[in-house]
Amino acid sequence: MSLLELSNVTAGYGPTPVLFDISMQINKGELACLLGRNGVGKTTLLRSIIGLNSLTKGSIIFDADDISKMPTFKRAKYGIAYIPQGREIIPYLSVLDNLKLGMAASGKKSKKIPEEIFDFFPMLKEHLSRQGGLLSGGQQQQLAIARGLMSNPKLMLLDEPTEGIQPSIVQEIEDTLKRINKEKEITVLVIEQKIDFARQLAEKFFMMEKGVIVAQGETEELTDSLVNQYLAV
């Protein structure tokens, strides 16, 4: 059953389009990767889904409702969590307060951090009073994902969660995203540059080139020739 459906989406920055007639569908419970070289429009696509970039054409259907003109904060309350490239945690706030920001995005009043957050990210429990900016890059990425999870989303959008992170933490992130997808039944869409990570993580892929989707399918259909054609530098 479809959770997210984009139909003929054109979007960009001001009058300059970056995306051209994008149509794609992600079903409930899927774990998908969005692939492509730098500058082909992958981040713009995620920003358009969460509402940070306005559409000049097309529509976005989320959980059977048209959210094309819905403001970003309403999309967050509606069940979309966005974990941007660079993580964008608040460096001077504690880990605890960064997590509470995620809860605020959902509009919930509760002040208690659900214990499942520490089940997924046990490291965070040890650093609740520490400033977010003092965490390592890998720890900050885990905090960013946990903050997104705090809103209890139906869909998580992650922009290059493995960028600049040591291999052992990359493996932890992969394992945790799989658990979140399976145990919480949260649909996940990840922008990724590491092809091995994408193949191990996702069951579905979309390949972008110059603002359009040029290939898509099950991950086992992600051939070396496709990788060489659209990802090789």
UniProtKB/TrEMBL annotation:
SMART domains assigned to the protein according to its UniProt record, in alphabetical order: AAA
Superkingdom field: Bacteria
SUPFAM superfamilies: P-loop containing nucleoside triphosphate hydrolases
Pfam families, per the entry: ABC_tran
GO molecular function: ATP binding; ATP hydrolysis activity; branched-chain amino acid transmembrane transporter activity
GO terms for biological process, alphabetical: L-amino acid transport
Record keyword Acetylation present: no
Gene3D superfamilies reported in the protein's UniProt record: P-loop containing nucleotide triphosphate hydrolases (3.40.50.300)
InterPro entries membership: AAA+_ATPase, ABC_transporter-like_ATP-bd, ABC_transptr_urea_ATP-bd_UrtE, BCAA_Transport_ATP-bd_LivF, P-loop_NTPase
Domain ABC transporter residues, every copy: 4-233
Keyword annotations: Amino-acid transport, ATP-binding, Nucleotide-binding, Transport
Family under the similarity heading: Belongs to the ABC transporter superfamily.
NCBIfam families to which the protein is assigned, alphabetical: urea_trans_UrtE (TIGR03410)
Name of this protein: Urea ABC transporter ATP-binding subunit UrtE
Organism expressing this protein natively: Euhalothece natronophila Z-M001
